[in-house]
Amino acid sequence: MANKTVYNVAVVGATGAVGEKIIQILQDKKFPIDKIKLLSSKRSAGKKIMFHNQEITVEEATPESFAGVDIALFSAGGSVSKKLAPEAVKHGAVVIDNTSAFRMTEGVPLVVPEVNEIDLKSHNGIIANPNCSTIQMVAALKPIQEAYGLNRVIVSTYQAVSGSGIEACNELENQSKQYLDNQEMTAEILPVKGDKNHYPIAFNALPQIDVFQDNGYTFEEMKMINETKKIMHAPELPVAATCVRLPFFTSHAESVYVEVDKADVTVADLWKALDGADGVVLEDDPSTQTYPTPLSASNKEEVFVGRVRKDLDTANGFHLWVVSDNLMKGAAWNTVQIAERLIQNNWLVK
Ligand code: NAP
Ligand code: 3JN
Question: How far apart, in whole angstroms, are the C-alpha atoms of residue 219 and residue 196?
Fold first, then answer.
């Protein structure tokens, strides 16, 4: 594979919300592809998807699907990754996995290229893409950590429904119509498909993303806490998270509180660190009401930061507002970017 200039790529979960975005980005970025395989469950096998003006037939993902594949991009849920990612590696593919299946596994790099690209070098066939809420937060934290050090992070999220997949998006659309038609709203998916209770998301806010853990935090909150420490190589960094689902389709927003290590840091210092940082766009001017929103960040690659303020009581404390498209930088773009960086650095083959 070392001297290749074009690659055989498989997209597992090609018919899903993340998979669709991955396919769109591979096309838009003119990713160097020889052959592409689009894989799903039995349900969508046979469906046709256009790729660079060519009709590709979706196939059911099986262990044999990975013969001849160089790069496999997985977004079909953790159980599919656990079963098929090792099979893909056995066939010689490098796997970039969008699920939480391997994120905290030792020896599996968990990578946001702007933050810890170097970790890609030590991969053993599987590379994990972090959770969307984690990705955008660490991209904003990295320039602050480098310039001023970090002593504490507390985040509250405002997450879009597309983070829960296509079915959840359909549910929001249907409930919105029902509410406006004065009908009872039917809730069958959110907050978590398969959990005991379901609540309407339309015109509501749900303080549960993923299932509850024994410590009272949800799994989404624990992903943010544990993944942030791993990506930032900061196992001792105190991180707390509250994750909330809101009724809009795309882009997650976050209110992030940080305490920096250096004394006498100003808002202007933080602006300087953030402005022009890799993958970050600063949009912050109260005098012109300039700040990012989920709508303004949608379909964009970058992480947008605004509302930088000094805490009024805690020395070295600052508040930020961080917004990014959860399906782009939060999932599909970070995945394709990892593949690009592996190729650019010649790190695809061990
Ligand atoms: P989705 O819209 O529900 O799509 C799920 C995809 O997985 C579909 O293509 C589906 O194929 C496929 N699939 C389901 N069961 C399968 C099986 N047994 N074998 C092969 N393919 C199977 O979900 P999504 O929003 O795209 O998310 C998919 C996964 O990506 C999530 O479960 C999560 O692990 C990960 N994700 C990560 C992030 C992140 O934060 N980085 C964000 C969102 C999602 P069919 O059409 O045949 O059903
Ligand atoms: O809910 C969101 O906004 C992001 C969801 C991500 C997600 C959804 C289902 C399963 C994940 C993830 O990537 O953390 C998983 C998973 O654990 O793989």
Answer: 16
